[in-house]
Amino acid sequence: MLRRDSHEKREIYVEEHTWGDAYEHLAVGVAQLTLDGRLLSANEQMCGVIGRPRRELLEKRLDEFLMTEESWPAFIAGLNRLIAGETPQYSSKMSAVRTTGRVIWVEMVFSLVRDNVTSQPRSMTAVAKDITFLKRAEQDLRDAEGTRDELSRKMMNAQEANRTSIARELHDDIGQSLAVLKIQMLRAGQPVSGQPATMHASLKDLSLKLEKILNKVSRLSHDLHSSELELLGLAVAVKGHCRECSEQLGIPIRCSCDYLDEKLDGMIALAFLRVLQEGMHNAVKHSSAKSMTVRLTCSDHELSLEIHDDGVGFDVETAKLAAGLGLISMRERIHLIGGKFEIWSSPGHGTRITACAPVVKQSP
């Protein structure tokens, strides 16, 4: 009886290895396994997917070189359902660490091989599909979603801070200035109480104060919404902002806007204007620049913006690790319109910002 069992096992062994030879040149990874999960044969494609030579795989259990996405008991339970005939096949996502240290992922699909005479389960066939790229894409998507969530939180906090700042400026500065101006206007041209020889400010003097208040309101309104952009287009808005910054800072800002004859899509134009405003704001705040150059160009297919300053510069890689909302906001605005955003800088060599995006022009 023992001799007969040994003979049957030998037949199975020979047949399984014959199957292995047949699978050798298939374009997918195929392996034959015993019912307890030991490899009888594996084709070259399977060895390539897992990243190990055949001699390291044969006669070993799957758990010696593969890890399941699910728990091992759950994986064994799935195989037992297959062997019991409760399901025609069983699949599991599994990972392996190659000798190089690189982690690969495969989706392994198991099916039964039955005895030709008794129809009893005799072995299993496993077909492997490399899903490493898919798993990495899923992880990148999760990372991106986490970054987007963090960005959304920062944007909401920034919006609230901006509203608070606007409310404070309206109430504490502009509101109080208007209240004082109202009182002064009621007393305009009248003698100061107890000092007949001294007169209150005239309406002409008060009009200068009113003009200052109007300028503050205009600046606040412009920061919130650019009427130049809406009515006159991106080129006029860019030139106007560069001119205002040059006058306020007392430094030369060379600005050129080429080939912007047609009106651009409003979302694209606004994104580029905000990038310009934020980029110049950062340069003013951090760079100590002596001069700046702004160039806006538009071809048939692409709109591009370049901002360059001769300031102190900074380490870009360090800045990426602790990116402030301004940098994130610029990058995100260009990303949302399908464009690319880059920053080049190094200590002592100034900063150059570029943004480009596909052109979408409004119909006349």
Topology:
Elements: H1 2-23, E1 29-33, E2 39-42, H2 44-50, E3 67-68, H3 72-83, E4 90-97, E5 103-114, E6 121-130, H4 132-186, E7 191-192, E8 195-199, H5 203-224, H6 227-232, H7 234-249, E9 253-258, H8 266-287, E10 292-298, E11 302-309, H9 316-321, H10 325-336, E12 340-345, E13 351-358
Parallel strand pairs: 9-10
Antiparallel strand pairs: 1-2, 1-6, 3-4, 4-5, 5-6, 7-8, 10-11, 11-13, 12-13
Helix pairs in contact: 4-5, 7-8, 8-10
Give the tally of β-strands.
Answer: 13
Radius of gyration: 36 Å
What's the story with the biggest beta sheet?
6 strands, antiparallel
Structural class by secondary-structure content: alpha+beta
Order of strands across the widest beta sheet?
A: 2-1-6-5-4-3
| N- to C-terminal distance | 93 Å
**Which overall shape is indicated by the principal axes computed on the Cα atoms?**
elongated
Q: H/E series, N to C? A: HEEHEHEEEHEEHHHEHEEHHEE
What number is the mean pLDDT? 78
Looking at this protein, list some descriptive labels.
elongated; 13 strands; 10 helices; 364 residues
Structure, described:
This protein has ten helices and 13 strands. It is of the alpha+beta class and 364 residues long. The strands form three sheets. It has a six-stranded antiparallel β-sheet with strand order 2-1-6-5-4-3, with helices on both faces. Strands 9-10-11-13-12 form a five-stranded mixed β-sheet, with helices on one face. It has a two-stranded antiparallel sheet with strand order 7-8. Helix 7 (234-249) packs parallel to helix 8 (266-287) and helix 8 (266-287) packs antiparallel against helix 10 (325-336). The model has no long low-confidence stretch (mean pLDDT 78).
